[in-house]
Write a structure and sequence with these properties.
The chain is of the alpha/beta class. Helix content is 42%, strand content 12%. The chain contains 15 helices and eleven strands. α8 links the parallel β2 and β3. The N and C termini lie far apart (61 Å). It binds pyridoxal-5'-phosphate.
Length: 474
Amino acid sequence: MKAEDFRRFGHELIDWIAEYFENIDQRPVLPAMEPGDLKAQLPSAPPPHGEPMDQIIADVDRLIAPALTHWSHPSFFAYFATSTSGPGIFGELLSAAFDNKSMLWRTSPASTELEEVVLDWLRQMMGLDPGMIGIIYDTASVSSMHAIAAAREGVEQRIREEGMSGRPDLPLLRVYVSEQAHSSIEKAVITLGLGQRGLRKIPTDSEFRMDVDALADAINEDKRNGYLPFCIVATVGTTSTSSIDPVEKIVPISEEHAMWLHVDAAYAGSAAVVPEFRHILAGCERADSLVTNPHKWLFTPFDLSVLYCRHMDLLKRAFSLVPEYLRTPEQEKVRSGSDYGIQLGRRFRALKLWMVMRYFGHDGLAARIREHCRVARLFASWVDESPDWELLAPVPLALVCFRAKPRDVPAEKFDALNEAIMHGVNASGRALLSHTRLNDKLTLRLSVGNIRTTEQHVRQVWQLLNDELQRRTT
Ligand code: PLP
């Protein structure tokens, strides 16, 4: 592409994006389409010849944008609502332009060194202790998988050299999580060859937090049976309810049994940048590793997950393999990302986080997260005060779990009613909610996390929910 064309279409696309954000609330959050609708409009064969850029951009407008679920829409309240931001987008743009493959220090000094600096800034913002060293992966699923691999390396059973299959000398290795833990931990256990029986799920208390006595009993029982308990994964901000496992009480158990303690703070870790919410990480100063996702609640475009680890030597021992063609004279003095994971080449992700942190500053990031928590609690207070609705879990941060329970509807119809209300709201295109199941009750979830979401958007979805309830009960 000629420089003049690059400039012209670049300006055009930036204008397109600016307009997209300015008018995003005119678009339906969820596209009104059926599976296969987009595919049916696209040619099934590749373009034999190059096509003009303005035609390609026109097709983004005509075909792609209408088929998007708009995660940046201020009324996107589903899953964990997350959104990108201007400085984050610029970081992605530059990173694509530089196209560094950040595998060795030499192939990308800026990426390697900026990553170390920026992750130390984030560590300070979250109040984590200096022994925690950060490394970037794509997602929390991958970060946690690497943490458990490092923990496995630490059991000194020569698993790296000899593997696990066909070894009668190897006891059953076990990882412990609460029943509310994210499925990514189970996937990590499967991926690492530990098998699903290598994961033990611990019950939770009435507020969906890991039951610490049940954890201690499970570990003791497994030890009596000859198993090798080696890792506990606590969650700070579970996916269904954002409950916070009592890390401070889990630490003594992990220390007593010399087990690795990994903390999954993929969602809630960002909240620790708000000084008055820092307590959610109490006890994490004694954890072995912790994952947090700036791509969730720190206005950084997907993907960017950070693993903080106290034992980088074990992570390196688990993954480093340096063939001749990757040897460099400076390798003993520098950190090479490829030594710490399964990937060789890594994207220059630190750039976007650096731009986000510099643009908003610690106080700007904290102010936005604090406001999200305020409006979520306001919504929770409306639910709590209404005779037709109820809260189904505490609201420690910015996620509300609730359901309709009108007096004139029998309780056995609540699940169907709430499902219908959710689908009604979502089909309107004016807001998007998701659900979970708590104590066998279908539960609606409202997550506030978008940079554009204000109190007015939350008021609007409350109205929509009440309109849907009325429509279905009168
Ligand atoms: N852990 C928790 C607590 C989550 O809520 C999620 C996703 O929502 C994940 C892990 C997985 O995140 P990722 O998509 O970055 O793998």
